[in-house]
Amino acid sequence: MAGSGPDPLFGLRNNFYIGAYQAAINNSDVPNLSQDDAVERDTLVYRSYIALGSHQVSLFFSSFSLFIVFFCKFILCFRLQLVISEIDASAATPLQAVKLLALYLTNPDNKETAIASLRELLGDPAIGSNPILRLIAGIVFMHEQDYNEALKHTNAGGTMELHALNVQILIKMHRSDYAEKQLRIMQQVDEDHTLTQLAMAWLNLAVGGSKIQEAYLIFQDFSEKYQMTSLILNGKAVCCMHMGNFDEAETLLLEALNKDAKDPETLANLVVCSLHLGKPSARYLNQLKLSNPDHILVKRAASAEESFDRAVQTVA
After folding, report:
1. Which of 133, 139, 265, 289 is disulfide-compatible with 97, CB 3.0–4.6 A?
2. What's phi and psi for 210, nearest 5 deg?
3. Distance, CA of 43 to CA of 178 (rounded, Å)
4. Alpha-carbon torsion (134, 28, 232, 255), positive or negative
5. Contact 116, 100 (CB under 8 A)
6. How far apart are CA 238 and CA 250, in angstroms?
7. How many whole angstroms separate alpha carbon 24 and alpha carbon 231?
C-alpha cells in the first residue's frame, strides 16, 4: 500500500480474514483510496461475495426441499454471477484472477476453462508474478488437491495471505515442519497480525497435544475482539472436540449453524460431534451431501458405505 499513514483497508481486510464477509461488503465504501488500494478493496469485496455464494443449499424442511433447492441455488449462484458479470476484460489483473475463481466455483463444467485461463495468466511474464493471481492459483489448485502445483505458485510468498495459504497447504500435505517455517516468516513480519494468529492456530491444531489449548486461546481471543463468525466458532469447536469437550463443541457449532446454515465445515463438524455424543447425525450428513457433495467427509462416508455393502454381499 502506498504511503505510511493509517491503513484505510485494515478493517475491511480483517473482516475478510475472520470470515465476516457481509460486514466486509457493507463497510467497503472507503473514501479517497489510491488506485492500488481501490483495486485491493474491490478484490476483497468480490472475494467476499464468492465466499458467501460458493456453498450450495442446505435443507431443513424436506416437505419444501425442492422449492428451497431451486430458490437458494438461484440466490447463491447470483452472487457468483455478479462477480463474473461485473469484472470485465479491462479490469486489473487481481480482479481478473478473482473472476476466474468465481467461474471455477459456479459449475463443475467451468473448472477446466477456468484453470486453463488461470494458467494462461500465470504464464504471462508481465503479470504472472502478481500476488493475488498467485494466491488465486494456490486456492484453486489446493481445491483440486494438487498441492505441489499450488505451492509452485505460492511458495515464494510475498504477502501475508500467501504465507498463510502456504501454511494451509503444507498442513494438508502433513508437513507441519515446513508449515512452521512459513509461520516463523509471518511472525517476523507481524506477530500480532490476524493471519499470523490464524496460521498459528491451524498449526497448533495439526500438531495436537498441548498445542490444542494454545489454539483454543487464539480463537477465544478472536471471539472477544471481533465479530463472532462461523470461522471463529468452528475453530473453538474443533479445539473443544480435540480436548474431549463435546458438549461445549456442540453449543458452539449450533451457534455457527444459526449464523450460516449452509457452511460445510459447520455441518461436517456437527456430524463428528454428534457421533461422539451418541446423538443422531444423519440430518447433518444429508445436509452436507446436498450442500457440498465433494466434501471429504461425504466422500469418506460414501466409501465406508460401499465397503460395508461389499462385505455384506461377500457374507451373503
Report:
1. 133
2. -70, -15
3. 29
4. negative
5. no
6. 10
7. 14
DSSP 4: S
CB atoms within 10 A of CB 126: 8
Nearest C-alpha neighbor of 235 from the set 257, 248, 213, 219: 219
* 211-225 vs 194-207: helix crossing angle, rounded to 10: 150
- Could you give the dihedral angle defined by the CA atoms of residues 300, 302, 308 and 313, in that order, rounded to the nearest 10 degrees? -150
C-alpha span between 1 and 193 (Å, rounded): 16
Q: How many residues does the chain have?
A: 316
Average pLDDT, the chain: 88
What letter does residue 60 receive in the DSSP assignment? S
> Residue 17: what residue type?
Y
- CA–CA distance, 27 with 144 (Å, rounded to integer): 32
Residues 6+ apart with CB under 8 A from 13: 7, 44
Question: What grid cell was written down for 73?
Answer: 441455488
Angstrom distance (rounded) from CA 152 to CA 128: 12
Nearest-angstrom CA–CA distance, 293 and 299: 8
Longest dimension (CA), the chain: 74
Closest CA to 242 of 207, 196, 281: 207
Binning the chain into helix, strand and coil, the percentages to the nearest 5 are 75, 0, 25
Number of other residues whose CB lies within 10 A of the CB of residue 129: 14
Burial 242-269 (b: 16+ CB within 10 A, else e): beebbebbbbbbeebbeebbbbbbbbbb
130-175 residue pLDDT tens:
999 999 999 999 999 999 999 999 999 999 999 999 999 999 999 9
**CB atoms closer than 10 angstroms to residue 236:** 27
CA distance 19 to 259: 11
